[in-house]
Structure formats: structure tokens, C-alpha cells
Amino acid sequence: MKGDVLLVTTLKDSFHIIRVEASNNQLFVDTTLLGIPYLTGIFPQDDSTFWLGSHGGLFKLDVDFKRGHKLFNIPLAEASVVIHGIAAVGEELIMSTASGVLTYNINNGSSQVYSLSDGLLGGEYIFRSAHHIPDRSKAFFGGTDGITVISPEFVNNGIAKASPVITGIEINNGEFDARNYCVDTTLNVSFIRQLKVPYTHNTIEIQTSPLEYSDPKSCLFRYRISGPDRVEFLPPSTNSTLSLTALREGGYDISIWATNSDYAWAGPRELRIEVLPPWYRTWWAYVLYAITILGTIGGVLRYRYLKLREVELAELDKAKAEAHAAETETSILRLQMNPHFIFNSLNSIDDYIIGEEPLRAHDYLVMFAELIRDILHRSTQPLTRLDREVDMLEKYIEAERMRVGEQLKYHIAIDDEVDTISTWIPTMILQPFVENAIWHGIGHREEGGTIVLSFRIDEDREEIVATVEDDGVGRTNARGGDRKHKSMAMDITRQRLALLNERIRALPERTPGDARYEIIDLKDQDGRSSGTRIVLYLPLIYPEDYESSSD
Amino acid sequence: MRAVAIDDDIKMHRLLQFMLREIDADLDLVGTAVSVDSGVALIEQEQPDLLLLDIELENGRTSFDILQQIDSGKYLIIFISGHNQYGQLALRFEALDYLDKPIKSQDLFEAIVRAKRRFSQRNAQERLADLEEAMANFQQQKLPTRLTVSTSEGIFFLAIDDILRISTADGLVTFHCADGRKIHKSDRLRRYDEQFEPYPEFMLVHKSNLVNLKRVRSIKPGPVLEIEDGTEVAITAQSARRVRRVMETL
Question: Measured between CA atoms, how close is B175 to chain A, in angstroms?
């Protein structure tokens, strides 16, 4: 129903136009036999304009109850066509037929035929099975092969003609098994879009066929081949088979066109063929080559480097050997105990034996042996833990005491701040000072004297301060002894301190101070000499520092 | 008192005889022997009060072979050992008296005094048990698991693992035990530092503290070691580094 006009038709050729008077709900039947054969569809354009599809073609009906109705037979692109159904998309009337679709533009009267080759279904459309969405954005036609949906794009742009199809592929003149070459899961050659073939399978034959034709012999084919070694257009010919030989590795894009029965070119049907390179030309093979080449170059460079390094190391070894020699020298330096001490000790033992004091001789010998063993053992280590060094000094003083007599007194004072087990000092560094105090300060006095050894820590300067003080005759009054040895012992001490300073300067976190010593001459109230004080400043250093700096 | 000396070095016989006479220890050396068999015979014949035993005798035999053949609990015993031998550790940890060669006369005198005192503190059965324990450790060459501390207050047996730390102050050494006991002894910490050297967990972390690192609860800033019994031991930064290094290997 449209407005107040009702069109009623019977199956054959009777046609009625009925006017409905809405005011009193009366029907005025205006029956006019218009002579339209077998009406199959009506599209009401507005209140008075109707488009009628029929077995006799398309008609336009202008309804005018006053002046009389008018009916026009509309010429279409296909003459004497049987319209199965009619619907509208936009300004276009779409009419289904036995073999396709016709369009008619109600504004400009243009008309077009679409068939199987335009991508439509091949089967016949069902009578009166034509509908459109009220806004005319899509129309639907039922056919024996399915439903055709027609949208405005279809009408406006037309569509490409159906592309030719691939009907067979032969590789190296042999059977083609899609499973071996296809990325897609399809096994039907007509759906294959991409082939992957190994480089040895590079002779490929492609058989094609136009989708729609009445006389295959008269169809024309043309091909475009675009690959790494060629871009080729094969001119139109009746040859439906494309032969590709000696394909190189890489990607080939094949385009195939064919003419349909209407002689219009359709296509292209596209096929991509990837010729896979041999393993030795794959990307990973190239990566492998790169690695091998870089590895070889690297190896050669490394070999050269190692050669150079060997030379360097040899030089380094030489340097190390020199350093070692220096170390050995200092370890000998550490052993530079006054030889007079050793001979005097032996003399004492001898004295005990002659004087028939065998027990004293025995005990002195045991003590002397322990001291010598201790010194020999210690002197191989550049640093000694302070508690052990103090023990050693105590043993040394005890030994001297046995020789000199009880009038030699000593006192060792270690500040509470000093943790003797985690403080290290150069081995035997204090011994020459103590020896000097005994031999030159106290040893020659009848009344003897006292040696005071004291240790404290200077936290700010990160050093241990050791003091050796005697209340002897003082430097100026010192007599006897071996001055030559005395000066040598001091030289050795200076050398050792200089070596220690070199090491400390090489440390990444060096302590602020240098190893050094001061000699202070002590005076009593009357200005007379009353002894000597040696103050030794030793930066805190640990065995691990010593190791790292000597490497 | 009467003593016998058993040593495979005849020079030692003479030296001991000489020293015993000189130090005036009220001890007569009445006989000497060089081997296990002659030693056993000598002891049975002389029935002395004190045995001076060199540990290692000839042919790989030891004084323990002698002790097994006699009524060992009856005698005061002083062991004499060569220097720094691993097996002798057993002796140091037990309630036994020992001397290292070479022997100073003063040390010999002190050892005799100690042996006399210990003899009076323990009965024969206890003395025998002490010897057997020492012998077992000695023969297995394994680290003793307990330490015997002999003080004027008695003899204490401490499981090594239960010693939290050993501290020293004013000439006294104090053993801090896991059960809260504190045992004081007049001694030098240095002696125990040397004695515990084969035990990696015992470390002299400070001049006055030998600590069982297995019993350290934490290293706190300071640095301070917190021991299981809640006490704290201040150490130096360098010592803390050493402690950390050793603790990682325990």
C-alpha cells in the first residue's frame, strides 16, 4: 500500500488500481486492464509513480485518477527481457533475470547488464524474490545458487569482470601436490594465491581458463610476469598455458588476464611464486657466513692481539721479575738484623757452657732458636699482624735481656683503640729501632734503663703511630757499638719506607699520609740528654692491598 | 716422686734427666726406655709416679700403645711432642699435659706442677676416660669436638660447637657458653687462637675476642658482631670484611 492508492494484480494479466478514500474508508476500484503480461514486481517511487517488472519488460505507471493513468514501456540494455524480480538501490532499479541482473537509472534512464562474468551467481533468479531495505541501501535477490546482494558500489562502479581461473599447475613437468608448495591450507589449485618452491623446482607450467566462455578456443590470454630477473608482458594469444622456466630464487608476481565470452578482458588473476633459495643462500646462511667471516677476522685479530700480549706479558714478566727481585731484596732487608746480636748470643751460650751453667745455655738456645725461626718465617711476609710483631719484639728484647741482664727493662703499651689483630705493619720494621735503643742507648750503662714501646692509632690520618723510647744516654753521647751497622740499618729502614710509600701511592684509595719517622732527642730539666724517642708513622695498609698493588 | 721417660731419642733421656735435676721439681728419673715393649716392661718394673711420654715412637707406634697395656689411670702423665703435629691437637683439647720440643726448663717445671694438680682433681677412672677420649681423637686424626678447660675451680668439658666466644681481659680468659655459663681461667687468649686454628669458624675478630662465627647472629653497623646470647663485640671495618668473607664459606 502506498498512500491512498492500492495496486492489485492477479497472476495472469488483470491489473487493478484501487483508490482508498481515507475520510470515509471507502474503496474506489478503478479496474483497468493494462495489458501487462505476467507482472512480477512493483516498485512504488512515490504516490503516483510506480515501476512494474513483468515478463514483457519494465513499465512505468503514472497514476492519475482525474486525467487518466499512463503506462510506459521502458527500453532496457537487454531487449525483450523477462524480469523475475524488481527492487531499488538508490536511484537505480535492479531487475533480476534468468541469467543476471539489469539496472535502470530512474533519473537518467541509463541501463546496464550484469552477468556471471561480473561476479554474479550463475543460476536463475527466482520469480518475485526481490527485496530492498527501505532506505534503498541494499537489494536482495534470491536465486537457485544463493542470494545476491547488490549495494550502491556495485551499480556505481560496475564491477570487474570475473577473473580467469587457474585450472592446473605443473612443476618440473610433474604432478603438482599442493601440500608440498602451498602456504595456504587449500589443495584446490583454483584458490592458490601463493606458491613456495625450492630453487630446483623452477620450471612451472600454469594452465588457466576464463571463468565464462562459450567458445574456449576463441578466448585470448595475456600474462604479466614480474620477478627478480624479468618484468615481462606476454602479448594476447590463445595460449591458455603459461610456461615459466629457469626461475631464479626470489618472488615472482604472475598476473593473468583472459577474455570472456563478451570479449572483455577480465582479471587479473594473481599468483605469487616464491622460489626458495638453496640453504646456502638463505638469510640464515648469510648470517652464518657473516659470523664465520667475523669470527675468522676476530680470531686473526685475537691471535695477533695475543701475540702482542705475549710480548707485552713477556715484558710484564720481566717487570714482575724485577719487582720480585726488589721484593726479595726487601725480604733480605728485613733480615738485616745486627750480626752482632747473633754472635753475641752465640758467645753468651758459649759462656754458659764454659761457666758450667748448662741449663741456662739450654734455655737460651731454645729461646734463640725460636726467635730465629720466627724471624726467618716472618721475613717472607711483607706485612705482619701487629700482635705477632709485638710478640716477636718481646722475644727479641727477652733474648737481649738474658744477655745484657735484668737491668734492661721494657714496657709495651698498646692503646685500647688499636685492634692488634686487624692492624698490620711492615715486618720487623721496628726491630732496628729497638736494637738501637738497647745497644746504643741503654746497653752501655751500668744502671741499665727502660725501653717503652707504645702504639696508638691516628684515625684522621689513617695511620698507626709507633713510638720507641729509651731513657739511655741519647744519640750524641752514644758510644761504642757498630756505627757502620747502625747507619746501614737506618738506610735499610729508609729504603723500606720508601718502597712502602710507592705501594701506598699506587693504591686506589690511598691514605693521606706517607710512612715516615722522626727522631727526638729527649732532655731533662737541666738540658742534659735523657734518651731518645723514635716516632714511626705507618699508614694503615692490609695484606690484600699489598697483593693487589704488586700484581 | 719417681718418673720414667720413654722416648726413641736417647739424647732426650739425658736432657730430661739433666733438666729434672736442675729445676728441683722433687722428681727423680728412675728409668728410660726407647720403645713400646721396653717401656711397658720398665713401667711395670719400676711402678713410677709420673710418665714422660714422647708421643711418636719408632715403627709408627705411639705412647698410646703403651698406655693400652698398663693401668694408665694410676699415673701422672706428661706428653712430649714434636713441633706442630696435627695429631697432637687431641692432647691440647683434653685434660692432658703436654710439652712441645724443644723444651724450656721453665715449661717443664710448670707442666709438672699442672700434672700434679690435675692428678689430685680427678679419680683414676676419670683419668682413664680422659686418656681414652684423647687416644680416640688422636688415632682418628679428627678434630676434637670438645674442649677440656682445667681451672682452679675444676675441670670443665665444653662442646666446641657450644662455645659462643672466648674473650680476654686483665689476664683472664672467659669462655662464653651457649647455656649461659661463663668459665674464667687465668690464661692468654693467644694460646686458644693457635689451638683453634684448624677450626675455620673460630676467628680472632678483635684482640680480645675469639668468636665462633657459626654463633654470630648479625653484623650490625659500627661494625658490631651480635652473638647468639645477645652480647655484642665491637670490631674494626677490616675485621668485619674478614668475618664476612669467612662466614660465606661456613
Answer: 19
B102 and A366 in contact by Cβ < 8 A?
Answer: yes
Q: What is the CATH number of domain B160-249?
A: 2.40.50.1020
- Claim to verify: residue A85 and residue A127 sit in the same structural domain: yes
Specify the DSSP class assigned to residue B200. T
Q: Tell me if chain B has a CB within 8 Å of the CB of A291.
A: no
CA B182 to chain centre: 20
Domain boundaries, chain B: 2-140, 160-249
Question: Choosing among B18, B23, B207, which should be mutated to test the A contact, i.e. which has the most A CBs within 10 A?
Answer: B207
In chain A, residues 332-361 whose CB comes closer than 8 Å to chain B = 358-359
* Residues spanned by the domain of A224: 165-280
* Residues in Cβ contact with A268 at an 8 Å cutoff, skipping those fewer than 6 apart: A163, A224, A255, A256, A257
CATH of the domain at A169: 2.60.40.10
- CB atoms closer than 10 angstroms to residue A356: 8
Looking at the 3D structure of chain A, how many domains does it have? 4
State how far the alpha carbon of A523 is from the alpha carbons of A367, A436, A463, A465, A526, in Å. 36, 18, 27, 22, 8
CA torsion sign for A497, A498, A499, A500 is: positive
Tens of pLDDT along chain A (551 residues) come to 445 677 766 655 666 777 776 656 666 666 665 667 788 888 888 878 888 888 888 888 888 777 777 888 888 877 778 888 999 888 888 888 887 888 888 887 788 777 766 666 666 888 888 888 888 888 888 887 778 888 777 665 544 456 788 888 888 887 777 777 776 666 677 778 888 888 888 888 888 887 655 566 667 888 888 888 888 888 788 888 888 888 888 889 988 888 765 566 777 888 888 888 877 777 778 778 888 888 888 788 778 777 877 777 777 677 666 666 666 656 555 555 566 677 778 888 888 888 888 888 888 888 888 888 887 777 777 888 899 899 889 988 988 888 788 889 999 999 988 888 888 998 888 988 898 888 887 876 778 889 999 999 988 888 999 999 998 877 766 655 556 656 667 777 888 888 888 888 877 777 777 889 999 988 888 888 888 999 999 998 888 776 644 43
A389 and A272 within one domain: no
Q: Are residues A404 and A545 in the same domain?
A: yes
Number of H helices, E strands in chain A: 9, 29
Is residue A170, in this structure, part of any structural domain at all?
Answer: yes
Supply angle C-alpha A401, A406, A412, rounded to 5.
65
| A229, A286: one domain | no
Q: Is residue A330 part of a domain?
A: no
| Cell numbers placing B172 | 683472664
Whether A327 and chain B come into contact, CB under 8 Å, resolves to: no
Residues A536 and A391 in one domain: yes
- Do the chains contact at A419 and B206, CB–CB below 8 Å? yes
| Among B249, B237, B230, B183, residue whose Cα is nearest residue B205 | B237
Cβ of B18 within 8 Å of Cβ of A358? The answer is yes
A425, A542: one domain: yes
In sequence order, which residues have a C-beta less than 8 Å from that of residue A499 and are 6 or more positions away? Answer: A326, A330
Of the CATH numbers 3.30.70.120, 3.60.21.10, 3.30.200.20, 3.40.50.2300, which one belongs to the domain with range B2-140? 3.40.50.2300
Q: For residue A338, is it within any domain?
A: no
Q: What is the CATH number of the domain that holds A505?
A: 3.30.565.10
This model of the complex carries an ipTM of 0.75
Closest chain B residue to the Cα of A367, Cα to Cα:
B104
Residue A361 is assigned to a structural domain of this protein:
no
